[in-house]
Amino acid sequence: MGDIMTETIKNKVAAYLRLLTLHRGEAKEAYDQVASIYDDFAKVWDHAIAAPTLAYYNQIIEARVKPGALILEAAAGTGERTQALLRHSQPGEIIALDASAAMLDLARSKVQDPGCVLWPGI
């Protein structure tokens, strides 16, 4: 059991390190490869590093997104920010795009709002 757990941890750490090396211009297939662990990584990142920025992001949503607005979300990923848009505003529709099919599959499993369309984008 310990060997299996150690191997699982090694695989996750390796995937996290791949995530850290991704940058704009990276092939969308790179995100397909790490989609299954992306949310685990993002939770750590969001809590340890990005919490103040995300709180500000949510304040901007609440202050600026008018009820019934049409929102175009680029790089929707696994749908975490899409969920924030839905929690902090009352949009008429969200069109969320991402280049990674695997990331969009995860987003679709989490975002069940009929006013939100998740599309593959460039």
Give a quick precis of the structure.
By secondary structure, the chain is α/β, with parallel strands linked by helices.
Q: Layout of SSEs?
A:
Elements: H1 2-21, H2 28-48, H3 51-64, E1 70-73, H4 80-88, E2 93-98, H5 101-110, E3 116-120
Parallel strand pairs: 1-2, 2-3
What this model shows, in words?
- Helix content is 61%, strand content 12%.
- It is of the alpha/beta class and 122 residues long.
- The chain has one domain (2-120): Rossmann fold (3-Layer(aba) Sandwich).
- It has a 3-stranded parallel sheet, with helices on one face.
- The radius of gyration is 16 Å and the shape is globular.
Could you state the order of secondary-structure elements as H and E? Answer: HHHEHEHE
Low-confidence stretches: none
CATH architecture: 3-Layer(aba) Sandwich
What oligomeric state is this? single chain
The CATH class is identified as Alpha Beta
Indicate the CATH topology.
Rossmann fold
Strand arrangement within the widest β-sheet reads 1-2-3
Q: Total strand count, please?
A: 3
What value does the Rg take, in angstroms? 16 Å
**CATH homolog superfamily:** Vaccinia Virus protein VP39
Main sheet summary:
3 strands, parallel
Structural class: alpha/beta
Our measurement of the CA-to-CA distance between the termini, rounded to an integer number of angstroms, reads 42 Å
Q: Which band does the percent of strand residues land in?
A: 5-15%
Shape, principal axes of CA atoms: globular
If helices are DSSP runs of H or I spanning 4 or more residues, what is the number of helices?
Answer: 5
Q: How helix-rich are the residues, as a percent range?
A: 55-70%
Quote the average pLDDT.
Answer: 85
Number of domains: 1
